[in-house]
Amino acid sequence: MTKKFLVVDLDCGVDDAQALMMALAAPNVEILGITCCHGNTTVKNVCRNVLRVLQVCDRLEIPVYEGAYRSLLGQAIHADSYHGSDGLGEVPDPGAPGLDCLQKEHAVVAMLRIFSEHPGQVSLVATGPLTNLALAVNMDPTFPQKIKSLFIMGGNMESRGNVTVCGEFNFACDPEAAHIVLNTFDCPTYIATWEFTCRSKVPWAFYETWIYQDTRKAEFMRKISAYSEEFIKRCSNNPGEISTTGFVSCDSYAMAAAIDESFVTDAIKCGVHVELNGTLTRGMMVLDVTEKLQKKQKAVVMNKCDLEKFKCLLMAALK
Q: Which of 11, 15, 86, 174 is catalytic?
């Protein structure tokens, strides 16, 4: 497979950790930097969580940068109920690396530097709120032109929300940032929406096989996933919940596409927009399939995927 150079921007909760471990295990991937953002938990916790993942994967040489600690308008939404108060399942690790392992450079500055040093060669995978990306393009309007491809986990395609009636978590955390990114980034953009990931879930039987591999990485994953697994079981009686009938690692779908584009087997290419003002729809992503908005830039919204390739990537992540 072709060598892939990535920068990963994330709000490291459990599924971000799964996606990151997937990329770390891929032989064709080199991660040039990891930029941290508020979201599932505080940005300090996110940084700690990334360092824990890198430690268990023996990859602490990869630089980690602290970024935005709140949304552009200052609102704060965390996902404690799913990821735990620390974002990683509330499993303390006394031997975890300290924040002194972080780079001194701010995440947004590092992002601008890395893509300027390697124009058109590096893809960006964003699995959290898009605050760092919005700040980057506001600092340098030419930033998107230096990105090879952008892979986003976020937004929705059927008006189904998971934190509000119509809002997916990452976009609802910072709708203004999502709006800026989807309206100013003119690089090839691929989006794994909430509904797409839920439709592409894998059976719980596979999850059991995956997570009970006899490896250090699998043991780590079992520990950090227990909290969210219990949350899913509590929600399993809710007929409106579309993610509880199988295992869904939301962020891993965007990462799988970044690792291997053939993972996506069907997509909708259209203009996309983020609603900022609706009482019930703020943060909702709108697909302009009839081209009423006449947007020049089109996004590739994932619709179907190769689940066997996805399973292989997940299995490899914990070997």
A: 11
